[in-house]
Amino acid sequence: MRLLKTDEYSSVFNLRCSVGNDFFQVLGRPNGMDGARLGVVVGRRTDRRAVGRNYIKRTVRELFRHEAVQLAGIDLVVRPRRAFGRAEGAAARAALAQLFRRIRGRFPLPGGADV
């Protein structure tokens, strides 16, 4: 359920289908598979400390784990736009969930069914 290779990330970046808000930018691409795959890109510019970057990645992966069934058939790359900590964690999760719903609406479900 993860994007691992550079080619997989590049194909998502090249399609340029994205949605965003204050916290995140989410890029997506149909993958032709039954499941969704996730890639997370958190640069040092987002948060200088590794602890903060790891917290952001854990938060994104956990929300993806809960939403993966609704995102079937899409490769996603999530890029945080700014750092957030535990105090803003709930707002960041809600913002990311909204972006997942928006990106889901841009691609047809595998098998032709709609949610």
Structural class: alpha+beta
Tally of structural domains: 1
Shape: globular
Count of strand segments: 4
CATH architecture: 2-Layer Sandwich
CATH class: Alpha Beta
Low-confidence runs? none
Spatial strand arrangement across the major sheet: 1-2-4-3
Q: Rounded to an integer, what's the Rg over CA atoms? A: 14 Å
On the 0-100 scale, what is the average pLDDT? Answer: 92
What proportion of the residues form beta strands (DSSP E)? 15-25%
Number of helices: 3
Helix content: 25-40%
CATH topology: the name is Ribosomal Protein S5, domain 2
Please outline the major beta sheet: 4 strands, mixed
Q: CA-to-CA gap between the ends?
A: 21 Å
In sequence order, what are the helices and strands, one letter per element? HEEEHEH
GO biological process, one term: tRNA 5'-leader removal
GO molecular function: 3'-tRNA processing endoribonuclease activity; ribonuclease P activity; tRNA binding
InterPro entries: Ribosomal_Su5_D2-typ_SF, Ribsml_uS5_D2-typ_fold_subgr, RNase_P, RNase_P_CS
Keywords: Endonuclease, Hydrolase, Nuclease, RNA-binding, tRNA processing
Any overview of this molecule?
It holds the Pfam family Ribonuclease_P. InterPro entries: Ribosomal_Su5_D2-typ_SF, Ribsml_uS5_D2-typ_fold_subgr, RNase_P, RNase_P_CS. Belongs to the RnpA family. One of its GO terms (cellular component) is ribonuclease P complex. The structure is a single chain. By secondary structure, this protein is an alpha+beta fold. The chain has one domain: Ribosomal Protein S5, domain 2, CATH 3.30.230.10. The chain contains three helices and four strands. It has helices at 6-15, 50-67, 89-104; strands at 17-20, 24-30, 37-40, 74-80. The longest helix is centred in the middle third of the chain and has 18 residues, at 50-67. It is globular and about 35 Å long.
